[in-house]
Specification:
two-stranded parallel ribbon; 43% helix; globular; 8% strand; binds S-adenosylmethionine; 2 domains; single chain
Length: 435
Protein backbone atom coordinates (compact mmCIF):
# COMPACT_ATOMS: atom_id res chain seq x y z
CA UNK A 1 0.00 0.00 0.00
CA UNK A 2 2.90 2.35 0.68
CA UNK A 3 4.29 1.60 -2.77
CA UNK A 4 0.90 2.04 -4.41
CA UNK A 5 0.47 5.40 -2.75
CA UNK A 6 3.98 6.52 -3.75
CA UNK A 7 3.40 5.49 -7.34
CA UNK A 8 -0.07 7.02 -7.68
CA UNK A 9 -1.20 3.99 -9.65
CA UNK A 10 -4.67 2.63 -10.31
CA UNK A 11 -5.58 2.60 -6.61
CA UNK A 12 -4.59 6.23 -6.00
CA UNK A 13 -8.16 7.53 -5.76
CA UNK A 14 -9.12 4.71 -3.42
CA UNK A 15 -6.10 5.22 -1.16
CA UNK A 16 -6.74 8.97 -1.10
CA UNK A 17 -10.28 8.27 0.14
CA UNK A 18 -9.01 6.37 3.20
CA UNK A 19 -8.52 8.16 6.51
CA UNK A 20 -5.08 9.15 7.76
CA UNK A 21 -6.26 9.84 11.31
CA UNK A 22 -7.44 7.08 13.62
CA UNK A 23 -8.93 6.95 17.09
CA UNK A 24 -7.28 3.57 17.74
CA UNK A 25 -5.03 3.20 20.83
CA UNK A 26 -2.05 2.68 18.48
CA UNK A 27 -2.07 6.49 18.18
CA UNK A 28 -2.87 7.35 21.83
CA UNK A 29 -0.46 9.07 24.19
CA UNK A 30 0.77 7.41 27.40
CA UNK A 31 -1.78 9.19 29.55
CA UNK A 32 -4.71 7.94 27.49
CA UNK A 33 -3.22 4.45 27.28
CA UNK A 34 -3.05 4.34 31.08
CA UNK A 35 -6.86 4.56 31.05
CA UNK A 36 -6.92 1.09 29.48
CA UNK A 37 -4.99 -0.54 32.34
CA UNK A 38 -6.40 -3.99 33.08
CA UNK A 39 -8.23 -4.33 29.76
CA UNK A 40 -7.15 -6.79 27.11
CA UNK A 41 -6.32 -3.93 24.72
CA UNK A 42 -2.99 -3.20 26.39
CA UNK A 43 -1.24 -6.52 25.73
CA UNK A 44 -2.52 -6.77 22.17
CA UNK A 45 -1.56 -3.34 20.97
CA UNK A 46 1.73 -4.56 19.48
CA UNK A 47 3.14 -1.08 18.89
CA UNK A 48 6.71 -2.06 19.73
CA UNK A 49 6.53 -5.19 17.56
CA UNK A 50 5.16 -3.17 14.64
CA UNK A 51 7.91 -0.59 14.99
CA UNK A 52 10.58 -3.29 15.26
CA UNK A 53 9.26 -4.90 12.07
CA UNK A 54 9.36 -1.54 10.35
CA UNK A 55 13.01 -0.99 11.34
CA UNK A 56 14.29 -4.54 10.97
CA UNK A 57 12.26 -5.91 8.05
CA UNK A 58 10.70 -3.17 5.98
CA UNK A 59 13.47 -0.54 5.92
CA UNK A 60 16.20 -3.03 4.85
CA UNK A 61 13.99 -4.22 1.99
CA UNK A 62 13.17 -0.69 0.93
CA UNK A 63 16.79 0.42 0.97
CA UNK A 64 17.92 -2.69 -0.92
CA UNK A 65 15.73 -1.88 -3.95
CA UNK A 66 16.39 1.70 -4.97
CA UNK A 67 14.81 0.94 -8.36
CA UNK A 68 11.46 0.34 -6.65
CA UNK A 69 11.80 2.69 -3.70
CA UNK A 70 13.70 5.79 -4.85
CA UNK A 71 15.55 7.23 -1.82
CA UNK A 72 14.07 10.71 -2.26
CA UNK A 73 10.56 9.24 -1.74
CA UNK A 74 11.42 7.46 1.51
CA UNK A 75 10.90 10.52 3.79
CA UNK A 76 7.42 11.02 2.29
CA UNK A 77 5.93 7.61 1.59
CA UNK A 78 7.91 5.05 3.60
CA UNK A 79 8.10 6.65 7.05
CA UNK A 80 7.14 4.96 10.30
CA UNK A 81 4.11 7.26 10.42
CA UNK A 82 2.90 6.12 6.96
CA UNK A 83 3.57 2.52 7.98
CA UNK A 84 1.29 2.90 11.00
CA UNK A 85 -1.36 4.66 8.94
CA UNK A 86 -1.44 1.91 6.31
CA UNK A 87 -1.34 -0.75 9.05
CA UNK A 88 -4.41 0.86 10.61
CA UNK A 89 -6.15 1.14 7.25
CA UNK A 90 -5.63 -2.59 6.81
CA UNK A 91 -6.67 -3.41 10.36
CA UNK A 92 -9.89 -1.41 10.11
CA UNK A 93 -10.86 -2.11 6.52
CA UNK A 94 -9.44 -5.38 5.21
CA UNK A 95 -11.43 -8.48 4.37
CA UNK A 96 -10.30 -12.08 4.45
CA UNK A 97 -10.84 -13.28 0.93
CA UNK A 98 -10.72 -16.87 -0.16
CA UNK A 99 -8.17 -17.54 -2.90
CA UNK A 100 -9.45 -18.75 -6.25
CA UNK A 101 -9.84 -22.54 -6.13
CA UNK A 102 -6.92 -24.50 -7.59
CA UNK A 103 -5.26 -21.28 -8.60
CA UNK A 104 -1.51 -21.51 -8.36
CA UNK A 105 -1.17 -17.73 -8.17
CA UNK A 106 -2.01 -15.82 -5.01
CA UNK A 107 -4.87 -13.90 -6.53
CA UNK A 108 -8.01 -13.75 -4.42
CA UNK A 109 -11.05 -15.09 -6.17
CA UNK A 110 -13.15 -12.45 -7.74
CA UNK A 111 -10.63 -9.65 -7.43
CA UNK A 112 -8.72 -8.39 -10.39
CA UNK A 113 -5.01 -7.85 -10.25
CA UNK A 114 -3.12 -6.25 -13.03
CA UNK A 115 0.25 -7.95 -13.09
CA UNK A 116 1.73 -5.03 -15.02
CA UNK A 117 1.15 -3.01 -11.88
CA UNK A 118 2.52 -5.59 -9.51
CA UNK A 119 5.81 -5.10 -7.73
CA UNK A 120 8.77 -6.80 -9.22
CA UNK A 121 9.51 -8.60 -5.95
CA UNK A 122 8.34 -11.83 -4.39
CA UNK A 123 5.07 -11.25 -2.58
CA UNK A 124 4.79 -13.26 0.64
CA UNK A 125 1.96 -15.70 0.17
CA UNK A 126 0.55 -15.08 3.64
CA UNK A 127 0.41 -11.27 3.29
CA UNK A 128 1.63 -10.90 6.84
CA UNK A 129 4.46 -8.45 6.46
CA UNK A 130 2.70 -5.89 8.66
CA UNK A 131 1.90 -7.17 12.13
CA UNK A 132 -1.46 -5.51 11.89
CA UNK A 133 -2.28 -7.80 9.01
CA UNK A 134 -1.04 -10.75 11.03
CA UNK A 135 -3.45 -9.85 13.76
CA UNK A 136 -6.28 -9.42 11.33
CA UNK A 137 -5.54 -12.91 10.17
CA UNK A 138 -5.01 -14.53 13.53
CA UNK A 139 -7.80 -13.05 15.54
CA UNK A 140 -10.66 -14.00 13.32
CA UNK A 141 -12.36 -10.69 13.79
CA UNK A 142 -11.79 -8.94 10.52
CA UNK A 143 -14.51 -8.28 8.04
CA UNK A 144 -15.04 -11.68 6.54
CA UNK A 145 -16.59 -12.76 3.34
CA UNK A 146 -19.57 -15.06 3.69
CA UNK A 147 -18.17 -18.43 2.81
CA UNK A 148 -18.18 -22.12 3.40
CA UNK A 149 -17.22 -22.94 7.00
CA UNK A 150 -15.04 -25.78 5.83
CA UNK A 151 -12.56 -23.40 4.24
CA UNK A 152 -9.25 -23.33 6.01
CA UNK A 153 -8.60 -19.92 7.51
CA UNK A 154 -4.91 -20.10 6.51
CA UNK A 155 -5.98 -20.00 2.90
CA UNK A 156 -7.73 -16.67 3.23
CA UNK A 157 -5.92 -13.61 1.99
CA UNK A 158 -6.11 -10.30 3.81
CA UNK A 159 -7.41 -7.97 1.12
CA UNK A 160 -8.57 -4.43 0.68
CA UNK A 161 -11.96 -4.40 -1.05
CA UNK A 162 -12.77 -0.85 -2.15
CA UNK A 163 -16.41 0.18 -1.68
CA UNK A 164 -17.27 -2.91 0.41
CA UNK A 165 -15.25 -1.34 3.23
CA UNK A 166 -17.44 1.75 3.42
CA UNK A 167 -20.01 0.09 5.67
CA UNK A 168 -20.08 0.53 9.43
CA UNK A 169 -21.10 -2.19 11.86
CA UNK A 170 -22.98 -2.41 15.17
CA UNK A 171 -23.57 -5.36 17.47
CA UNK A 172 -26.42 -7.53 16.19
CA UNK A 173 -27.33 -5.06 13.43
CA UNK A 174 -25.92 -6.70 10.32
CA UNK A 175 -28.19 -6.32 7.31
CA UNK A 176 -25.68 -6.69 4.47
CA UNK A 177 -22.95 -9.19 3.68
CA UNK A 178 -20.18 -9.65 1.21
CA UNK A 179 -20.69 -12.64 -1.10
CA UNK A 180 -18.51 -14.27 -3.72
CA UNK A 181 -19.78 -13.81 -7.24
CA UNK A 182 -18.34 -15.63 -10.22
CA UNK A 183 -15.98 -12.79 -11.01
CA UNK A 184 -16.52 -10.26 -8.29
CA UNK A 185 -17.31 -9.73 -4.64
CA UNK A 186 -20.82 -8.42 -4.06
CA UNK A 187 -22.13 -6.57 -1.01
CA UNK A 188 -25.76 -7.68 -0.77
CA UNK A 189 -28.47 -6.67 1.69
CA UNK A 190 -29.78 -9.61 3.69
CA UNK A 191 -32.85 -7.90 5.20
CA UNK A 192 -35.29 -5.23 4.06
CA UNK A 193 -33.81 -1.81 4.87
CA UNK A 194 -36.07 1.23 5.04
CA UNK A 195 -35.09 4.55 3.53
CA UNK A 196 -32.94 6.45 6.01
CA UNK A 197 -31.87 3.34 7.94
CA UNK A 198 -28.20 2.51 8.07
CA UNK A 199 -26.73 -0.37 6.07
CA UNK A 200 -24.53 -2.38 8.42
CA UNK A 201 -21.97 -5.02 7.55
CA UNK A 202 -20.63 -7.17 10.40
CA UNK A 203 -17.25 -6.97 12.08
CA UNK A 204 -18.17 -10.28 13.77
CA UNK A 205 -19.79 -8.62 16.80
CA UNK A 206 -16.46 -8.09 18.51
CA UNK A 207 -16.13 -7.02 22.14
CA UNK A 208 -15.45 -3.34 22.74
CA UNK A 209 -11.77 -3.96 23.55
CA UNK A 210 -11.28 -5.38 20.07
CA UNK A 211 -13.49 -2.78 18.36
CA UNK A 212 -11.42 -0.06 19.95
CA UNK A 213 -8.07 -1.69 19.16
CA UNK A 214 -8.86 -2.40 15.52
CA UNK A 215 -11.43 0.20 14.54
CA UNK A 216 -11.25 3.00 17.09
CA UNK A 217 -14.90 2.95 18.15
CA UNK A 218 -17.04 1.07 20.69
CA UNK A 219 -20.63 -0.14 20.78
CA UNK A 220 -22.79 1.45 23.47
CA UNK A 221 -26.15 -0.29 23.54
CA UNK A 222 -28.68 -1.71 26.01
CA UNK A 223 -27.34 -4.74 27.84
CA UNK A 224 -29.10 -7.96 28.87
CA UNK A 225 -30.37 -8.24 32.45
CA UNK A 226 -27.77 -10.92 33.23
CA UNK A 227 -25.16 -8.18 33.24
CA UNK A 228 -26.84 -6.08 35.87
CA UNK A 229 -26.95 -8.99 38.33
CA UNK A 230 -24.91 -8.17 41.38
CA UNK A 231 -25.14 -4.48 40.62
CA UNK A 232 -25.77 -2.47 43.81
CA UNK A 233 -28.75 -0.64 42.34
CA UNK A 234 -29.59 -3.17 39.63
CA UNK A 235 -29.77 -0.32 37.18
CA UNK A 236 -29.87 -0.93 33.45
CA UNK A 237 -26.51 -0.39 31.86
CA UNK A 238 -25.21 0.47 28.43
CA UNK A 239 -22.33 -1.25 26.69
CA UNK A 240 -21.59 -3.99 24.19
CA UNK A 241 -23.53 -7.27 24.60
CA UNK A 242 -20.60 -8.96 22.80
CA UNK A 243 -18.10 -7.97 25.50
CA UNK A 244 -15.91 -10.61 27.11
CA UNK A 245 -13.18 -10.69 29.76
CA UNK A 246 -9.90 -12.45 29.13
CA UNK A 247 -8.42 -14.32 32.09
CA UNK A 248 -4.76 -15.29 31.81
CA UNK A 249 -3.79 -18.77 33.00
CA UNK A 250 -1.06 -17.36 35.26
CA UNK A 251 -3.75 -15.79 37.49
CA UNK A 252 -5.48 -19.16 37.68
CA UNK A 253 -2.18 -20.76 38.58
CA UNK A 254 -1.54 -18.26 41.38
CA UNK A 255 -5.04 -18.72 42.76
CA UNK A 256 -4.63 -22.52 42.69
CA UNK A 257 -1.22 -22.32 44.37
CA UNK A 258 -2.60 -20.05 47.11
CA UNK A 259 -5.39 -22.53 47.74
CA UNK A 260 -3.08 -25.55 47.80
CA UNK A 261 -0.70 -23.77 50.15
CA UNK A 262 -3.45 -22.68 52.53
CA UNK A 263 -4.99 -26.16 52.74
CA UNK A 264 -1.74 -28.15 52.92
CA UNK A 265 -0.44 -29.65 56.16
CA UNK A 266 2.91 -28.17 57.34
CA UNK A 267 5.34 -30.66 55.75
CA UNK A 268 3.77 -30.08 52.34
CA UNK A 269 3.32 -26.37 52.89
CA UNK A 270 6.26 -25.56 50.72
CA UNK A 271 5.74 -22.64 48.38
CA UNK A 272 8.40 -23.53 45.84
CA UNK A 273 7.47 -27.25 45.74
CA UNK A 274 3.81 -26.34 45.19
CA UNK A 275 4.74 -23.84 42.46
CA UNK A 276 7.04 -26.36 40.75
CA UNK A 277 4.39 -29.08 40.72
CA UNK A 278 1.78 -26.66 39.34
CA UNK A 279 4.22 -25.53 36.69
CA UNK A 280 4.69 -29.17 35.64
CA UNK A 281 0.93 -29.53 35.30
CA UNK A 282 0.45 -26.34 33.34
CA UNK A 283 3.34 -27.23 31.02
CA UNK A 284 1.57 -30.53 30.34
CA UNK A 285 -1.68 -28.61 29.76
CA UNK A 286 -0.04 -26.34 27.20
CA UNK A 287 1.67 -29.29 25.51
CA UNK A 288 -1.74 -30.92 25.15
CA UNK A 289 -2.90 -27.82 23.28
CA UNK A 290 -4.64 -26.10 26.21
CA UNK A 291 -5.00 -22.32 26.08
CA UNK A 292 -3.18 -19.88 28.30
CA UNK A 293 -6.02 -17.35 28.14
CA UNK A 294 -9.68 -18.04 28.97
CA UNK A 295 -12.49 -16.02 27.48
CA UNK A 296 -15.27 -15.24 29.97
CA UNK A 297 -18.63 -14.31 28.52
CA UNK A 298 -21.59 -12.68 30.31
CA UNK A 299 -23.13 -15.26 32.68
CA UNK A 300 -25.19 -17.94 31.03
CA UNK A 301 -26.18 -21.42 32.13
CA UNK A 302 -22.63 -22.71 31.84
CA UNK A 303 -21.19 -19.70 33.76
CA UNK A 304 -17.51 -20.69 33.27
CA UNK A 305 -15.62 -21.85 30.18
CA UNK A 306 -15.12 -25.60 30.24
CA UNK A 307 -11.39 -25.37 29.62
CA UNK A 308 -10.97 -23.09 32.65
CA UNK A 309 -12.81 -25.56 34.90
CA UNK A 310 -10.73 -28.38 33.47
CA UNK A 311 -7.46 -26.57 34.19
CA UNK A 312 -8.44 -25.78 37.78
CA UNK A 313 -9.24 -29.46 38.36
CA UNK A 314 -5.95 -30.47 36.82
CA UNK A 315 -4.08 -28.12 39.14
CA UNK A 316 -6.00 -28.84 42.32
CA UNK A 317 -6.86 -32.49 42.18
CA UNK A 318 -4.15 -35.15 42.31
CA UNK A 319 -6.43 -37.94 41.10
CA UNK A 320 -7.55 -35.87 38.13
CA UNK A 321 -3.94 -35.07 37.30
CA UNK A 322 -3.00 -38.77 37.33
CA UNK A 323 -6.04 -39.73 35.27
CA UNK A 324 -5.36 -36.95 32.79
CA UNK A 325 -1.82 -38.19 32.23
CA UNK A 326 -2.98 -41.79 31.80
CA UNK A 327 -5.64 -40.83 29.30
CA UNK A 328 -3.59 -38.04 27.74
CA UNK A 329 -6.69 -35.92 28.07
CA UNK A 330 -7.45 -32.95 30.38
CA UNK A 331 -10.07 -33.53 33.12
CA UNK A 332 -13.80 -33.19 32.47
CA UNK A 333 -15.26 -29.78 33.29
CA UNK A 334 -17.01 -30.68 36.56
CA UNK A 335 -17.63 -27.69 38.79
CA UNK A 336 -17.07 -28.67 42.41
CA UNK A 337 -16.67 -26.30 45.33
CA UNK A 338 -12.87 -26.20 45.08
CA UNK A 339 -13.10 -25.31 41.42
CA UNK A 340 -15.57 -22.53 42.15
CA UNK A 341 -13.53 -21.12 45.02
CA UNK A 342 -10.23 -21.17 43.15
CA UNK A 343 -11.91 -19.60 40.13
CA UNK A 344 -13.44 -16.95 42.33
CA UNK A 345 -9.99 -16.05 43.67
CA UNK A 346 -8.59 -15.93 40.14
CA UNK A 347 -11.41 -13.58 39.12
CA UNK A 348 -10.76 -11.34 42.12
CA UNK A 349 -7.11 -11.13 41.04
CA UNK A 350 -8.28 -10.28 37.52
CA UNK A 351 -10.57 -7.58 38.92
CA UNK A 352 -7.67 -6.08 40.87
CA UNK A 353 -5.78 -5.41 37.62
CA UNK A 354 -8.10 -2.48 36.88
CA UNK A 355 -7.70 0.94 38.38
CA UNK A 356 -10.92 1.89 40.20
CA UNK A 357 -14.28 0.20 40.46
CA UNK A 358 -17.17 -0.30 38.07
CA UNK A 359 -19.11 2.27 40.07
CA UNK A 360 -16.31 4.81 39.47
CA UNK A 361 -16.54 4.20 35.73
CA UNK A 362 -20.33 4.36 35.67
CA UNK A 363 -20.28 7.60 37.66
CA UNK A 364 -17.73 9.04 35.24
CA UNK A 365 -19.96 8.20 32.30
CA UNK A 366 -23.07 9.56 34.00
CA UNK A 367 -21.51 12.75 35.30
CA UNK A 368 -19.44 13.80 32.35
CA UNK A 369 -20.98 13.07 29.01
CA UNK A 370 -18.39 15.39 27.49
CA UNK A 371 -15.35 13.28 28.40
CA UNK A 372 -12.53 13.46 25.83
CA UNK A 373 -13.11 10.71 23.24
CA UNK A 374 -10.20 8.42 24.14
CA UNK A 375 -11.02 8.59 27.83
CA UNK A 376 -14.67 7.93 27.12
CA UNK A 377 -13.87 4.91 24.96
CA UNK A 378 -11.43 3.53 27.56
CA UNK A 379 -14.02 3.97 30.31
CA UNK A 380 -16.66 2.11 28.28
CA UNK A 381 -14.22 -0.75 27.55
CA UNK A 382 -13.19 -1.00 31.24
CA UNK A 383 -16.75 -0.83 32.51
CA UNK A 384 -17.89 -3.55 30.10
CA UNK A 385 -15.23 -5.97 31.28
CA UNK A 386 -15.73 -5.14 34.97
CA UNK A 387 -19.48 -5.66 34.59
CA UNK A 388 -18.97 -9.19 33.28
CA UNK A 389 -16.55 -10.00 36.08
CA UNK A 390 -18.97 -8.69 38.67
CA UNK A 391 -21.89 -10.67 37.24
CA UNK A 392 -19.87 -13.91 37.12
CA UNK A 393 -18.54 -13.37 40.63
CA UNK A 394 -22.08 -12.77 41.85
CA UNK A 395 -23.25 -16.06 40.32
CA UNK A 396 -20.21 -17.90 41.64
CA UNK A 397 -20.89 -16.68 45.15
CA UNK A 398 -24.51 -17.76 44.96
CA UNK A 399 -23.44 -21.21 43.73
CA UNK A 400 -20.77 -21.61 46.41
CA UNK A 401 -23.29 -20.52 49.04
CA UNK A 402 -25.84 -23.04 47.75
CA UNK A 403 -23.24 -25.82 47.83
CA UNK A 404 -22.21 -24.92 51.37
CA UNK A 405 -25.82 -25.04 52.49
CA UNK A 406 -26.18 -28.57 51.18
CA UNK A 407 -25.21 -29.96 54.56
CA UNK A 408 -21.58 -28.93 54.27
CA UNK A 409 -21.26 -30.71 50.98
CA UNK A 410 -18.11 -29.49 49.37
CA UNK A 411 -17.66 -31.31 46.17
CA UNK A 412 -20.76 -30.31 44.28
CA UNK A 413 -21.22 -32.78 41.48
CA UNK A 414 -18.66 -34.68 43.41
CA UNK A 415 -17.46 -37.78 41.60
CA UNK A 416 -14.02 -36.88 42.88
CA UNK A 417 -15.23 -36.43 46.41
CA UNK A 418 -13.10 -38.26 48.91
CA UNK A 419 -10.55 -39.06 46.30
CA UNK A 420 -8.54 -35.93 46.73
CA UNK A 421 -5.68 -35.71 49.06
CA UNK A 422 -5.66 -32.53 51.00
CA UNK A 423 -7.31 -30.26 48.47
CA UNK A 424 -10.66 -30.11 50.15
CA UNK A 425 -10.79 -28.73 53.64
CA UNK A 426 -14.14 -30.39 54.25
CA UNK A 427 -12.69 -33.74 53.31
CA UNK A 428 -9.93 -33.84 55.79
CA UNK A 429 -9.85 -30.59 57.64
CA UNK A 430 -7.17 -29.31 55.32
CA UNK A 431 -4.62 -31.36 57.16
CA UNK A 432 -3.23 -33.36 54.29
CA UNK A 433 -1.27 -31.95 51.45
CA UNK A 434 -2.22 -32.79 47.92
CA UNK A 435 1.25 -34.12 47.25
C1 LIG B 1 -14.85 -0.58 7.50
S1 LIG B 1 -14.67 1.10 7.95
C2 LIG B 1 -16.23 1.75 7.64
C3 LIG B 1 -16.13 2.98 6.84
C4 LIG B 1 -16.17 4.24 7.61
N1 LIG B 1 -17.51 4.53 8.04
C5 LIG B 1 -15.60 5.41 6.83
O1 LIG B 1 -16.31 6.34 6.59
O2 LIG B 1 -14.44 5.39 6.45
C6 LIG B 1 -14.50 0.96 9.66
C7 LIG B 1 -14.46 2.28 10.39
O3 LIG B 1 -15.74 2.87 10.45
C8 LIG B 1 -15.99 3.44 11.73
N2 LIG B 1 -17.17 2.76 12.30
C9 LIG B 1 -17.71 1.60 11.88
N3 LIG B 1 -18.78 1.27 12.63
C10 LIG B 1 -18.91 2.23 13.56
C11 LIG B 1 -19.83 2.46 14.64
N4 LIG B 1 -20.82 1.60 14.92
N5 LIG B 1 -19.67 3.56 15.40
C12 LIG B 1 -18.66 4.43 15.14
N6 LIG B 1 -17.76 4.29 14.13
C13 LIG B 1 -17.89 3.20 13.35
C14 LIG B 1 -14.74 3.21 12.55
O4 LIG B 1 -13.98 4.38 12.50
C15 LIG B 1 -14.03 2.09 11.82
O5 LIG B 1 -12.61 2.17 11.91
Amino acid sequence: MMWEEANAGKWAAYLASLPSKFDTPMFWNEQDLAELKGTSVVEKLGKEDAERDYREKLLPVISSRKDLFPPHLIPFHYTLERYHIHGSRILSRSFCVEPAPSDASDEPSGTTQNHDDAMDVDVPSDSQSHPAATRVHDNDGDLSVDQDDEDEEEEDIVSMVPMADMLNARYGSENAKLFYGANELRMVTTKPIKAGEQIFNTYNDLPNAELLRRYGHVDYLSLPASLTQGSPNGSAALGNPGDVVELRADLVLTAANDRIYSTAAPPAQNVSAIAAESQRRIDWWLEMGGDDVFVLEPPSESLLPEDLVSLVRLLCDDDEWRKAQDKEKPPKAKKDKVVLEVTKQALLKRQALYEGSLEDDEALMNLSSDLPLNKKHATIVRAGEKRILRAILHQLELTIEALSQKGGMSNGEGSSRGKRKGMDDDDNGGKKARR
